[in-house]
């Protein structure tokens, strides 16, 4: 039982438990036993913080079913190893070296020191942001739906946004609040901070403390912080402008909005597209250019140790600088005056190749099974599932049982990570002392 297998089986266990609970009569509004495939699809989407649905969450599931879904989202967003370790800490036990290695694998941390404090910091950060989101959205939802229902809506959407899940209790997601600045900014704020990763948030907190205490010593940000924040800001800006330009003349999306609401909706989609599955415009009515822009941003996804999926912003930045180094005739890849080691370059290439291969295979299978669907709709659905985004052009519920199972496997693969899943299947690599001679070949 390797670390990779422990993590992968942990997520499978959560999905299995969630499926059984969502099958129970008390989980549905009708009070009858739930369809096993619907329960499996919903549980997988919740644990994998994706947001794709085959039934309307707000009407199909009872309060208890919605509570199960939001708990699965919370556990899935934190991660199996984080949740397990936190429960061990609650009962006062100390975790062993194996669990420390699992935490290292989950968060891609180079060191094992401070694992206990890391888990506590993650839980505290999660609670602070989620509770803040609840109080900020509460006035809007309470005014529209009453105090008790408004509180539940605020709790559900705050947890869903922070964990980049995209589940909504409204049938049209957040289209009804496309003009609400408070809802738009709170949701996008939770999504951004949930997606940039806990290490970036903690580092930003330490910098603020350093500034407030008036310390003269210069605070040195890590390379991870610089790459994640700069790449995120660039993608947010380019995505906002791209959505505005591609949808400004589309009366079904942004065309009928005033300029203020156009930029607000474009900003919302630019933020949500890379990580979560909310929407304030009808995705199925977007232009082809808008759909391709959405697929590109979904494929990139969030950042390492965050609650989003995709190939991650750091992978994109490494490959971008790698390409630039080749064009400039350099033999090393440099980011902010730091050389990127070769193993990291190989890992970035493997992530992109493995992700693209998984998406192509899933798209081919669904195209054969549901041949009546447009290719762009299928590709959009698969990328959304793999990147654990949750946006859809509206075909999810119309997929056949086989295609839904393919989407389930795709969501699971995207959540645990393609490299981790392969490592769990093939086992630990065997070390070797063999060194082979080099030889050139034609590339490109």
Q: What is the count of structural domains?
A: 1
H/E element order: HHHHHHHHHHHHHHEEHHHH
From the N-terminal CA to the C-terminal CA, the straight-line distance is 41 Å
**Which percent bin holds the helix content?**
55-70%
Q: Residue-averaged pLDDT, rounded?
A: 88
Low-confidence stretches: none
How is the main sheet built? 2 strands, antiparallel
Structural class: mainly alpha
Strand order in space, largest sheet: 1-2
Beta fraction: under 5%
- Find the count of extended strands (DSSP E, 2+ residues): 2
Could you please describe the fold and organization of this structure?
This protein has one domain. 64% of the residues lie in helices and 1% in strands. It has 18 helices and two strands. The chain has a two-stranded antiparallel ribbon with strand order 1-2. Strand 1 (334-335) and strand 2 form a beta hairpin. The radius of gyration is 22 Å and the shape is globular.
Give the helices and strands, then pairings.
Elements: H1 3-23, H2 36-47, H3 57-60, H4 63-78, H5 80-90, H6 97-107, H7 115-145, H8 147-162, H9 181-196, H10 198-212, H11 223-247, H12 259-273, H13 288-300, H14 313-327, E1 334-335, E2 338-339, H15 342-369, H16 375-386, H17 401-416, H18 418-426
Antiparallel strand pairs: 1-2
Helix pairs in contact: 1-2, 1-4, 1-6, 1-18, 2-4, 2-17, 4-8, 5-7, 7-8, 7-9, 8-9, 9-12, 11-12, 11-13, 13-16, 14-15, 15-16, 15-17, 16-17, 17-18
């Amino acid at each position: 039982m390797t670390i990779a297998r422990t993590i992968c089986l942990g997520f499978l266990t959560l999905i299995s438990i969630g499926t059984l609970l969502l099958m129970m009569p008390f989980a549905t509004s009708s009070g009858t036993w739930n369809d096993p495939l619907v329960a499996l699809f919903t549980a997988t989407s919740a644990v994998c913080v994706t947001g794709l649905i085959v039934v309307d969450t707000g009407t199909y599931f009872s309060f208890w079913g919605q509570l199960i879904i939001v708990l699965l989202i919370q556990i899935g967003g934190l991660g199996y190893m984080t949740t397990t370790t936190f429960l061990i800490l609650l009962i006062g036990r100390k975790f062993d070296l194996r669990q420390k290695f699992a935490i290292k694998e989950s968060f891609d941390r180079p060191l094992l020191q401070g694992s206990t404090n890391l888990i506590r910091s993650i839980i505290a950060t999660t609670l602070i942001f989620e509770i803040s989101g609840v109080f900020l959205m509460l006035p809007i939802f309470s005014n529209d739906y009453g105090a008790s229902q408004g509180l539940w809506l605020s709790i559900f959407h705050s947890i869903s946004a922070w964990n980049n899940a995209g589940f909504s209790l409204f049938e049209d997601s957040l289209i009804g609040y496309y003009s609400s600045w408070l809802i738009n900014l709170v949701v996008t704020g939770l999504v951004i901070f949930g997606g940039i990763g806990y290490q970036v948030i903690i580092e930003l907190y330490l910098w603020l403390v350093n500034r407030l205490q008036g310390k003269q010593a210069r605070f040195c940000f890590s390379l991870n912080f610089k790459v994640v924040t700069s790449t995120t800001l660039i993608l947010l800006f380019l995505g906002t402008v791209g959505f505005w330009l591609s949808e400004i003349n589309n009366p079904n999306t942004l065309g009928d909005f005033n300029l203020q609401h156009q930029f607000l909706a474009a900003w919302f989609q630019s933020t949500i597209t890379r990580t979560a599955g909310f929407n304030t415009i009808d995705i199925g009515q977007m232009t082809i250019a808008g759909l391709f822009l959405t697929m590109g941003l979904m494929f990139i996804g969030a950042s390492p140790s965050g609650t989003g999926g995709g190939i991650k912003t750091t992978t994109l930045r490494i490959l971008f600088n790698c390409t630039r180094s080749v064009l400039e005739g350099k033999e090393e890849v440099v980011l902010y005056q730091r050389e990127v080691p070769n193993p990291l370059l190989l890992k970035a290439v493997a992530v992109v190749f493995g992700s693209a291969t998984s998406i192509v295979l899933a798209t081919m299978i669904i195209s054969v099974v549901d041949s009546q669907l447009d290719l762009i709709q299928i590709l959009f659905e698969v990328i959304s599932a793999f990147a654990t985004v949750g946006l859809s052009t509206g075909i999810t519920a119309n997929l056949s049982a086989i295609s839904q199972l393919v989407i389930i496997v795709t969501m699971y693969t995207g959540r645990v990570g393609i490299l981790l899943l392969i490592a769990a299947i093939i086992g630990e690599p065997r070390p070797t002392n063999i060194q082979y001679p080099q030889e050139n070949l034609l590339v490109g």
